[in-house]
Write a structure and sequence with these properties.
The protein is built from four helices and no strands. By secondary structure, the chain is mainly alpha-helical. α2 (22-52) packs across α3 (59-69) and α2 packs antiparallel against α4 (81-108).
Length: 119
């Protein structure tokens, strides 16, 4: 019974999702892409330094050196604008298309849930 209740809640939330404006999914995707880039950029810059350096320093040492020698904590986000625009735009398109295709098929199936055995 609890599983059936959860499935019904998912169906209701899918019906409510069909009422959101078209552009909202693209905006949400751009925020998701921006969060992805901003959270991953410090790790990426440390990884690139590890790959391109001739020294055998560890990630934590490189991390500390970047902060100490290159302008503080914000130096971990140097060069972020280009990936921010690229990844933010790509994730925005992926998220928006995915959500709108789900809406299309949900309305095409008139709200009926389908599974792989009925396709």
């Amino acid at each position: 019974n609890q599983f059936l209740f959860q499935i019904q809640n998912i169906s209701l939330s899918m019906t409510e999702a069909n009422k959101t404006p078209f552009i909202y999914e693209f905006i949400a995707g751009s925020f998701g892409g921006a969060a992805q880039v901003l959270s991953g950029q410090p790790f990426d810059i440390v990884k690139v330094r590890m790959q391109s350096g001739n020294n055998n320093q560890g990630a934590l040492t490189i991390f500390k050196n970047i902060i100490a020698n290159e302008g503080g904590i914000f130096s971990l986000w140097k060069g972020t604008l280009s990936p921010l625009l690229g990844v933010g735009g790509a994730v925005s398109i992926q998220f928006g298309v995915n959500e709108n295709v789900k809406k299309f098929f949900n309305s095409y199936n008139q709200g009926k849930r389908t599974n792989l055995t009925t396709i």
